[in-house]
């Protein structure tokens, strides 16, 4: 493994959903560099297989399993979990990273079918993965679950209102699960602000300079900023941390705005 990282996850296996690019890819790469065996998944087979090849090329000795899966489909979630345990012999870390946002603007005018889809993928499917992980491994052996939320789940945004409401629900889900699953399973969430990914392009394209100057750190986030925090929370170094939602937002919410 690359020397600049520790080996906190040697002998452990992880699932990172929505990991063909962006934040999910960066999390998978970080866990691999710290010794984990990692299953990556996303809807498109060609993209997830290409991501796996890229990870193997960038991380010496990387143990990567690519499973194409739509997070919103029960049977496909089951396939991801089943194949992970069969391939790696355990499931110690689950990162619920998949998120969708097909609608923007005021909730009063929102397409309810789009809102249902947002909540189904961002919240219900995340719980579905947790249930499967528990049955397959964590209920008997313990583990760590990280849900990728958003600062939009902590403060009203207006523009991405339905998405923010779903992330607020995910934050509450995190707290409930932490209470119910302790002490053997820890459950935490990470709440990023705008991170430079394809998913977030609509939030900064054409106005990046103005937006980044609104952050105390004077830049937007990078996927690696989130990955480092996720790796810490998933590791034994965070053994007494559960039920937390940790902001990784360049100080944005400290300014009182979103």
From TrEMBL:
InterPro entries: NAD(P)-bd_dom_sf, Sc_DH/Rdtase_CS, SDR_fam. The keyword Signal does not apply. It holds the Pfam family adh_short_C2. SUPFAM superfamilies: NAD(P)-binding Rossmann-fold domains. One of its GO terms (molecular function) is oxidoreductase activity. NCBIfam families: PRK07231.1. PANTHER family: DEHYDROGENASE/REDUCTASE (SDR FAMILY) MEMBER 4, DEHYDROGENASE_REDUCTASE 4. This is NAD(P)-dependent dehydrogenase (Short-subunit alcohol dehydrogenase family). It comes from Labedaea rhizosphaerae.
């Amino acid at each position: 493994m690359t020397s600049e990282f520790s080996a906190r996850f040697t002998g452990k296996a992880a699932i990172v959903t929505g990991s063909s690019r962006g934040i999910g890819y960066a999390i998978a790469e970080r866990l691999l560099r710290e010794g984990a065996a990692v299953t990556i998944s996303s809807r498109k087979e060609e993209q997830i297989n290409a991501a796996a090849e890229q990870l193997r090329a960038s991380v010496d000795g990387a143990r990567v399993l690519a499973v194409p899966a739509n997070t919103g489909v029960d049977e496909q979630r089951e396939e991801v979990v089943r194949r992970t345990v069969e391939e790696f012999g355990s499931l110690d870390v689950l990162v619920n990273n998949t998120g969708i946002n097909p609608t923007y603007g005021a909730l009063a005018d929102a397409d309810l079918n789009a809102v249902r889809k947002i909540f189904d993928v961002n919240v219900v499917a995340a719980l579905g993965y947790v249930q499967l992980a528990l049955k397959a491994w964590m209920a008997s052996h313990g583990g760590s679950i990280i849900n990728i939320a958003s600062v939009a789940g902590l403060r009203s945004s207006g523009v991405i209102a339905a998405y923010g409401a779903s992330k607020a629900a995910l934050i509450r889900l995190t707290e409930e699960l932490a209470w119910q699953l302790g002490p053997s399973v820890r459950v935490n969430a990470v709440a990023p602000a705008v991170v430079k990914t394809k998913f977030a392009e609509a939030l900064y394209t054409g106005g990046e300079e103005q937006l980044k100057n609104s952050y105390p750190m004077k830049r937007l986030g990078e996927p690696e900023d989130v990955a480092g925090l996720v790796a810490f929370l998933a590791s034994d170094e965070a053994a007494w941390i559960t039920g937390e939602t940790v902001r990784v937002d360049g100080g944005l919410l400290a300014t009182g705005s979103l």
